[in-house]
Amino acid sequence: MEKSKVLIIGGTGYLGKRLVKASLALGHETYVLHRPEIGVDIEKVQMLLSFKEQGAKLVSGSFNDYQSLVNAVKLVDVVICAISGVHIRSHQILLQLKLVDAIKEAGNVKRFLPSEFGTDPAKMANAMEPGRVTFDDKMVVRKAIEDAGIPFTYVSANCFAGYFLGGLCQPGSILPSKDSVVLLGDGNPKAIYVDEDDIAMYTMKAINDPRTLNRTMYLRPPKNILSQREVVETWEKLIGKTLQKSSISKEEFLASMKGTRDPY
Ligand code: NDP
């Protein structure tokens, strides 16, 4: 496989650290942006040092220092950004507009993979608040990339398994109960769940693949397409127990979202 020089931005994040691991495993020359704002966050510092021990190169740079972004981008062929973008946590998707400018100015990048890794935002025009900001902002970044003529790949990873499977597909829950579960409606609509380490590996395998150039790559492993009932059945088999089931209607679910906090 062709080896590249890869810069990972957001490498200390939930997905980012897996991208660093996959990049190193595939033998790419891996650069990880280290931002001074990290301050005394000792766990992040130690994570960065562990990347270095595994062969990554740390590059100092900040979204508050445009030239540092240009300098970092000039070191590599491929830029992957995994900056935060979850409305219930931290949401920084639009910061990438500065990165797009830096990539355009540097002029050497053969492929940019922006922070996407979710449901294809191009198909989410009807998404609801408060979560839709993620899709709207990702579309703004896409337009900037395409207007700048930067070669790209968008990775649509559907649902992160950790967030969605851990809590048996119940929003706001990431641990499975051994007693009960609330089904969304009848629990039969299917969704696609992808393990985060797999997302990272598929992403790294796409960076030099001509089939993914200027396209969206959809991760849809057939065995990972499951209804909530199927997820619950799998858990029930694992624990050898049947859960008590109730259900929440669409109307009740939407009412429960009222007043949920806005992204920050
Ligand atoms: P995280 O919340 O774990 O954050 C990722 C990175 O963002 C961190 O490394 C952090 O750096 C960096 N960051 C935050 N603020 C700044 C800033 N001001 N300047 C520079 N870097 C900053 O992100 P996730 O891994 O949860 O999300 C990555 C992508 O995956 C997003 O696009 C998100 O929408 C998507 N996603 C998809 C999901 C799905 O189910 N499909 C679920 C969750 C996320 P530092 O460590 O230095 O603070």
From TrEMBL:
Superkingdom classification of source: Eukaryota
Official protein name in the record: NmrA domain-containing protein
Organism of this sequence: Citrus sinensis (Sweet orange)
